[in-house]
Design a protein that fits this description.
seven-stranded mixed sheet; Rossmann fold; 310 residues; alpha/beta; DNA polymerase, domain 1; single chain; binds S-adenosylmethionine; globular; 7 strands
Protein backbone atom coordinates (compact mmCIF):
# COMPACT_ATOMS: atom_id res chain seq x y z
CA UNK A 1 0.00 0.00 0.00
CA UNK A 2 1.09 3.56 -0.66
CA UNK A 3 1.78 5.53 2.52
CA UNK A 4 1.26 9.07 1.28
CA UNK A 5 -1.11 10.98 3.57
CA UNK A 6 -4.25 12.81 2.57
CA UNK A 7 -4.91 16.05 4.45
CA UNK A 8 -8.69 16.48 4.68
CA UNK A 9 -10.00 19.89 3.59
CA UNK A 10 -12.37 22.30 5.33
CA UNK A 11 -12.92 20.15 8.42
CA UNK A 12 -14.24 22.99 10.60
CA UNK A 13 -16.76 24.03 7.95
CA UNK A 14 -17.85 20.39 7.59
CA UNK A 15 -18.34 19.88 11.33
CA UNK A 16 -20.27 23.17 11.63
CA UNK A 17 -22.72 22.18 8.92
CA UNK A 18 -23.09 18.46 9.70
CA UNK A 19 -23.28 18.93 13.48
CA UNK A 20 -22.45 15.25 14.12
CA UNK A 21 -23.65 15.36 17.74
CA UNK A 22 -27.19 15.53 16.34
CA UNK A 23 -26.76 12.70 13.77
CA UNK A 24 -27.76 9.06 13.95
CA UNK A 25 -26.49 7.94 10.53
CA UNK A 26 -23.78 9.54 8.40
CA UNK A 27 -22.45 8.48 4.99
CA UNK A 28 -18.97 9.41 3.81
CA UNK A 29 -19.34 8.68 0.08
CA UNK A 30 -15.66 9.42 -0.66
CA UNK A 31 -13.66 7.80 2.13
CA UNK A 32 -10.16 8.39 0.67
CA UNK A 33 -8.04 8.02 3.80
CA UNK A 34 -10.85 8.77 6.22
CA UNK A 35 -9.87 12.28 7.33
CA UNK A 36 -13.45 13.57 7.19
CA UNK A 37 -14.85 10.29 8.51
CA UNK A 38 -12.52 10.41 11.54
CA UNK A 39 -13.43 14.01 12.38
CA UNK A 40 -17.15 13.19 12.24
CA UNK A 41 -17.02 9.79 13.95
CA UNK A 42 -15.34 11.29 17.02
CA UNK A 43 -18.36 13.54 17.60
CA UNK A 44 -21.22 11.17 16.83
CA UNK A 45 -23.45 9.92 19.64
CA UNK A 46 -22.23 6.51 20.84
CA UNK A 47 -25.14 4.63 19.20
CA UNK A 48 -24.84 6.36 15.78
CA UNK A 49 -23.93 4.53 12.56
CA UNK A 50 -21.52 5.47 9.83
CA UNK A 51 -21.16 4.15 6.26
CA UNK A 52 -17.81 4.55 4.50
CA UNK A 53 -17.83 4.30 0.70
CA UNK A 54 -15.07 4.48 -1.91
CA UNK A 55 -14.62 2.88 -5.32
CA UNK A 56 -10.84 2.58 -4.88
CA UNK A 57 -9.70 -0.86 -3.55
CA UNK A 58 -6.70 0.78 -1.79
CA UNK A 59 -8.96 3.25 0.02
CA UNK A 60 -11.18 0.36 1.10
CA UNK A 61 -8.17 -1.69 2.26
CA UNK A 62 -7.20 1.32 4.37
CA UNK A 63 -10.72 1.63 5.75
CA UNK A 64 -10.76 -2.07 6.66
CA UNK A 65 -7.40 -1.87 8.39
CA UNK A 66 -8.51 1.08 10.52
CA UNK A 67 -12.28 0.71 10.95
CA UNK A 68 -13.11 -2.98 10.67
CA UNK A 69 -13.28 -3.46 14.42
CA UNK A 70 -15.37 -0.34 15.02
CA UNK A 71 -18.94 -0.90 16.02
CA UNK A 72 -21.72 0.46 13.83
CA UNK A 73 -19.40 1.21 10.88
CA UNK A 74 -20.09 -0.29 7.44
CA UNK A 75 -17.40 -0.27 4.75
CA UNK A 76 -18.50 -0.47 1.12
CA UNK A 77 -16.44 -0.65 -2.04
CA UNK A 78 -18.66 0.84 -4.74
CA UNK A 79 -19.04 3.89 -6.93
CA UNK A 80 -21.41 6.35 -5.30
CA UNK A 81 -23.71 6.02 -8.32
CA UNK A 82 -24.74 2.78 -6.54
CA UNK A 83 -25.51 4.52 -3.25
CA UNK A 84 -29.14 3.45 -3.39
CA UNK A 85 -28.45 -0.31 -3.74
CA UNK A 86 -25.80 -0.28 -1.04
CA UNK A 87 -27.88 1.70 1.46
CA UNK A 88 -30.97 -0.39 0.74
CA UNK A 89 -28.96 -3.52 1.54
CA UNK A 90 -27.99 -1.91 4.85
CA UNK A 91 -31.64 -0.85 5.39
CA UNK A 92 -30.54 2.78 5.70
CA UNK A 93 -31.95 4.28 2.50
CA UNK A 94 -34.05 7.35 3.36
CA UNK A 95 -32.65 7.47 6.91
CA UNK A 96 -29.34 9.31 6.45
CA UNK A 97 -28.76 12.49 8.49
CA UNK A 98 -25.71 13.66 6.52
CA UNK A 99 -23.93 12.59 3.38
CA UNK A 100 -20.54 13.90 2.36
CA UNK A 101 -18.95 14.01 -1.08
CA UNK A 102 -15.33 15.17 -1.31
CA UNK A 103 -14.84 14.77 -5.05
CA UNK A 104 -11.75 14.06 -7.11
CA UNK A 105 -8.62 12.10 -6.23
CA UNK A 106 -6.83 11.65 -2.92
CA UNK A 107 -3.17 12.46 -2.29
CA UNK A 108 -2.25 8.73 -2.09
CA UNK A 109 -3.80 8.24 -5.54
CA UNK A 110 -1.98 11.27 -6.97
CA UNK A 111 1.35 10.51 -5.33
CA UNK A 112 1.55 6.83 -6.33
CA UNK A 113 3.25 6.65 -9.76
CA UNK A 114 1.65 3.24 -10.41
CA UNK A 115 -1.82 4.80 -10.42
CA UNK A 116 -0.88 7.06 -13.34
CA UNK A 117 -2.87 10.12 -12.20
CA UNK A 118 -0.03 12.63 -12.14
CA UNK A 119 2.33 14.05 -14.74
CA UNK A 120 4.75 14.74 -11.89
CA UNK A 121 5.74 11.06 -11.70
CA UNK A 122 6.46 8.60 -14.47
CA UNK A 123 4.13 5.61 -14.42
CA UNK A 124 1.67 3.60 -16.48
CA UNK A 125 -1.22 5.56 -18.01
CA UNK A 126 -3.87 4.08 -15.75
CA UNK A 127 -5.90 6.84 -13.93
CA UNK A 128 -8.71 4.48 -12.83
CA UNK A 129 -10.01 5.15 -9.32
CA UNK A 130 -11.14 1.54 -9.24
CA UNK A 131 -8.03 -0.01 -10.75
CA UNK A 132 -9.59 -3.47 -10.70
CA UNK A 133 -12.03 -2.82 -13.56
CA UNK A 134 -12.65 -0.88 -16.77
CA UNK A 135 -10.26 0.50 -19.38
CA UNK A 136 -7.08 2.28 -18.32
CA UNK A 137 -6.37 5.79 -19.62
CA UNK A 138 -4.13 4.31 -22.31
CA UNK A 139 -6.80 1.82 -23.42
CA UNK A 140 -9.40 4.60 -23.37
CA UNK A 141 -7.17 6.82 -25.58
CA UNK A 142 -6.67 3.92 -27.98
CA UNK A 143 -10.44 3.38 -28.36
CA UNK A 144 -11.68 6.96 -28.41
CA UNK A 145 -12.11 8.78 -31.73
CA UNK A 146 -10.07 11.93 -32.34
CA UNK A 147 -13.29 13.95 -32.51
CA UNK A 148 -14.46 12.68 -29.12
CA UNK A 149 -11.00 13.28 -27.65
CA UNK A 150 -11.11 16.93 -28.78
CA UNK A 151 -14.53 17.25 -27.11
CA UNK A 152 -13.32 15.66 -23.84
CA UNK A 153 -10.22 17.91 -23.64
CA UNK A 154 -12.35 20.96 -24.37
CA UNK A 155 -15.28 20.15 -22.07
CA UNK A 156 -13.57 18.45 -19.14
CA UNK A 157 -10.20 20.22 -19.31
CA UNK A 158 -11.31 23.58 -20.75
CA UNK A 159 -8.15 23.11 -22.84
CA UNK A 160 -7.92 25.71 -25.60
CA UNK A 161 -5.39 23.62 -27.58
CA UNK A 162 -7.68 20.58 -27.52
CA UNK A 163 -7.44 19.98 -31.29
CA UNK A 164 -3.64 20.07 -31.48
CA UNK A 165 -3.28 17.88 -28.39
CA UNK A 166 -5.87 15.33 -29.56
CA UNK A 167 -4.15 15.04 -32.96
CA UNK A 168 -0.75 14.49 -31.30
CA UNK A 169 -2.19 11.88 -28.92
CA UNK A 170 -3.86 9.89 -31.69
CA UNK A 171 -0.67 10.00 -33.80
CA UNK A 172 1.43 8.83 -30.87
CA UNK A 173 -1.07 6.04 -30.15
CA UNK A 174 -0.91 4.83 -33.76
CA UNK A 175 2.90 4.70 -33.81
CA UNK A 176 3.14 3.25 -30.29
CA UNK A 177 5.19 6.14 -28.88
CA UNK A 178 2.97 6.77 -25.85
CA UNK A 179 2.95 4.37 -22.91
CA UNK A 180 3.54 6.35 -19.73
CA UNK A 181 2.49 9.54 -17.95
CA UNK A 182 5.84 11.11 -18.87
CA UNK A 183 5.22 10.37 -22.58
CA UNK A 184 1.80 12.04 -22.36
CA UNK A 185 3.17 15.02 -20.47
CA UNK A 186 5.94 15.63 -23.02
CA UNK A 187 3.55 15.26 -25.92
CA UNK A 188 1.12 17.80 -24.41
CA UNK A 189 3.90 20.29 -23.71
CA UNK A 190 5.15 19.99 -27.31
CA UNK A 191 1.63 20.42 -28.76
CA UNK A 192 1.03 23.77 -27.02
CA UNK A 193 2.22 26.93 -28.75
CA UNK A 194 1.75 29.09 -25.61
CA UNK A 195 2.12 28.42 -21.91
CA UNK A 196 -0.23 29.30 -19.07
CA UNK A 197 2.08 30.86 -16.46
CA UNK A 198 0.02 29.59 -13.53
CA UNK A 199 -0.52 25.95 -14.47
CA UNK A 200 1.64 23.14 -15.75
CA UNK A 201 0.72 22.71 -19.44
CA UNK A 202 -0.39 19.10 -18.89
CA UNK A 203 -2.78 19.88 -15.98
CA UNK A 204 -5.88 20.31 -18.12
CA UNK A 205 -5.26 17.26 -20.32
CA UNK A 206 -4.66 14.97 -17.33
CA UNK A 207 -7.78 16.30 -15.60
CA UNK A 208 -9.93 15.80 -18.71
CA UNK A 209 -8.75 12.24 -19.37
CA UNK A 210 -9.18 11.30 -15.71
CA UNK A 211 -12.76 12.63 -15.71
CA UNK A 212 -13.56 10.63 -18.85
CA UNK A 213 -11.89 7.39 -17.72
CA UNK A 214 -13.81 7.44 -14.41
CA UNK A 215 -17.06 8.71 -15.93
CA UNK A 216 -16.98 11.39 -13.25
CA UNK A 217 -19.63 13.73 -14.64
CA UNK A 218 -22.27 11.05 -14.68
CA UNK A 219 -21.07 9.68 -11.32
CA UNK A 220 -21.48 13.08 -9.66
CA UNK A 221 -24.89 13.76 -11.22
CA UNK A 222 -26.21 10.34 -10.22
CA UNK A 223 -24.60 10.44 -6.78
CA UNK A 224 -26.23 13.80 -5.94
CA UNK A 225 -29.61 12.67 -7.22
CA UNK A 226 -29.50 9.47 -5.15
CA UNK A 227 -28.24 11.37 -2.12
CA UNK A 228 -31.49 13.34 -1.85
CA UNK A 229 -33.48 10.12 -1.76
CA UNK A 230 -31.04 8.54 0.69
CA UNK A 231 -31.40 11.42 3.16
CA UNK A 232 -33.98 11.57 5.91
CA UNK A 233 -36.15 14.71 5.88
CA UNK A 234 -33.95 17.51 7.23
CA UNK A 235 -30.78 15.52 6.35
CA UNK A 236 -27.79 17.42 5.02
CA UNK A 237 -25.80 17.10 1.83
CA UNK A 238 -22.22 18.41 1.66
CA UNK A 239 -20.26 18.51 -1.60
CA UNK A 240 -16.65 19.68 -1.89
CA UNK A 241 -15.42 20.28 -5.45
CA UNK A 242 -11.95 20.94 -6.76
CA UNK A 243 -12.50 22.29 -10.24
CA UNK A 244 -15.16 24.14 -12.18
CA UNK A 245 -16.55 21.03 -13.92
CA UNK A 246 -17.43 19.43 -10.57
CA UNK A 247 -18.59 22.64 -8.95
CA UNK A 248 -20.86 23.58 -11.86
CA UNK A 249 -22.73 20.28 -11.55
CA UNK A 250 -23.18 20.73 -7.77
CA UNK A 251 -24.19 24.39 -8.07
CA UNK A 252 -26.83 23.72 -10.75
CA UNK A 253 -28.12 20.68 -8.92
CA UNK A 254 -28.64 22.53 -5.63
CA UNK A 255 -30.14 25.52 -7.43
CA UNK A 256 -32.61 23.41 -9.45
CA UNK A 257 -33.60 21.22 -6.52
CA UNK A 258 -34.11 24.31 -4.34
CA UNK A 259 -36.47 25.79 -6.93
CA UNK A 260 -38.58 22.68 -7.21
CA UNK A 261 -40.66 21.38 -10.12
CA UNK A 262 -40.10 22.84 -13.54
CA UNK A 263 -43.02 24.64 -15.19
CA UNK A 264 -42.82 26.70 -18.39
CA UNK A 265 -42.26 30.37 -17.46
CA UNK A 266 -45.61 31.47 -18.98
CA UNK A 267 -47.58 29.30 -16.49
CA UNK A 268 -48.19 31.08 -13.17
CA UNK A 269 -47.55 28.48 -10.47
CA UNK A 270 -48.35 28.97 -6.77
CA UNK A 271 -45.45 28.32 -4.40
CA UNK A 272 -47.20 25.28 -2.85
CA UNK A 273 -46.98 23.49 -6.20
CA UNK A 274 -43.21 23.92 -6.60
CA UNK A 275 -42.22 21.20 -4.08
CA UNK A 276 -38.50 22.02 -3.74
CA UNK A 277 -36.53 19.00 -2.54
CA UNK A 278 -33.57 20.93 -1.10
CA UNK A 279 -32.84 24.14 0.76
CA UNK A 280 -29.41 25.62 0.16
CA UNK A 281 -27.44 26.18 3.38
CA UNK A 282 -25.52 29.46 3.31
CA UNK A 283 -23.20 30.56 0.57
CA UNK A 284 -20.50 28.43 -1.06
CA UNK A 285 -17.37 28.44 1.12
CA UNK A 286 -13.66 28.52 0.25
CA UNK A 287 -10.77 27.49 2.50
CA UNK A 288 -9.18 30.29 4.53
CA UNK A 289 -5.66 31.58 3.87
CA UNK A 290 -4.26 29.67 6.85
CA UNK A 291 -5.62 26.36 5.50
CA UNK A 292 -4.30 27.07 1.98
CA UNK A 293 -0.91 27.86 3.50
CA UNK A 294 -0.93 24.62 5.51
CA UNK A 295 -2.37 22.50 2.69
CA UNK A 296 -1.82 24.03 -0.78
CA UNK A 297 -3.92 21.25 -2.37
CA UNK A 298 -6.98 22.77 -0.66
CA UNK A 299 -6.69 26.04 -2.60
CA UNK A 300 -9.23 25.17 -5.31
CA UNK A 301 -11.84 23.66 -2.96
CA UNK A 302 -15.43 24.93 -3.06
CA UNK A 303 -17.75 23.74 -0.29
CA UNK A 304 -21.51 23.68 -0.84
CA UNK A 305 -24.21 22.38 1.44
CA UNK A 306 -27.95 21.85 1.34
CA UNK A 307 -30.68 20.33 3.48
CA UNK A 308 -33.44 18.00 2.38
CA UNK A 309 -36.76 19.73 2.73
CA UNK A 310 -38.84 17.91 5.32
C1 LIG B 1 -10.52 13.79 -2.27
S1 LIG B 1 -10.55 12.10 -1.88
C2 LIG B 1 -11.46 12.03 -0.39
C3 LIG B 1 -10.63 12.26 0.83
C4 LIG B 1 -11.37 12.02 2.14
N1 LIG B 1 -12.46 12.93 2.33
C5 LIG B 1 -10.41 12.11 3.31
O1 LIG B 1 -10.60 12.98 4.17
O2 LIG B 1 -9.47 11.30 3.39
C6 LIG B 1 -11.69 11.45 -3.01
C7 LIG B 1 -11.97 9.97 -2.86
O3 LIG B 1 -13.23 9.71 -3.49
C8 LIG B 1 -13.16 8.54 -4.22
N2 LIG B 1 -14.13 8.66 -5.30
C9 LIG B 1 -14.12 9.56 -6.30
N3 LIG B 1 -15.18 9.36 -7.10
C10 LIG B 1 -15.87 8.32 -6.58
C11 LIG B 1 -17.07 7.65 -6.96
N4 LIG B 1 -17.74 7.99 -8.05
N5 LIG B 1 -17.51 6.65 -6.18
C12 LIG B 1 -16.83 6.30 -5.04
N6 LIG B 1 -15.68 6.87 -4.66
C13 LIG B 1 -15.20 7.88 -5.42
C14 LIG B 1 -11.73 8.46 -4.71
O4 LIG B 1 -11.38 7.12 -4.98
C15 LIG B 1 -10.97 9.06 -3.54
O5 LIG B 1 -10.53 8.07 -2.67
Amino acid sequence: MNHSQHIPVMIEELLNIVNPEQCQTVVDATYGRGGHATAIYGRLPSDARMVLIDRDPEAIAHARSVWQAMKRVDIVQAPFSRLDEELKTLKLFGKIDAIIFDFGVSSPQLDNPDRGFSFRHDGPLDMRMDNSSGPTALEWMMRVSEKKLVQVLWEYGEERFSRAIATSIKQAISNGSIQTTRDLEQLVVAAQPFRDRHKHPATRTFQAIRIAVNDEVSEISQGLELAIEALAPGGKLVAISFHSIEDRIVKRFIRNQSRGNFYPPEIPVPKEMMHPRLRQIGKPLKPGTEEIHRNPRSRSAVFRAAQKVA
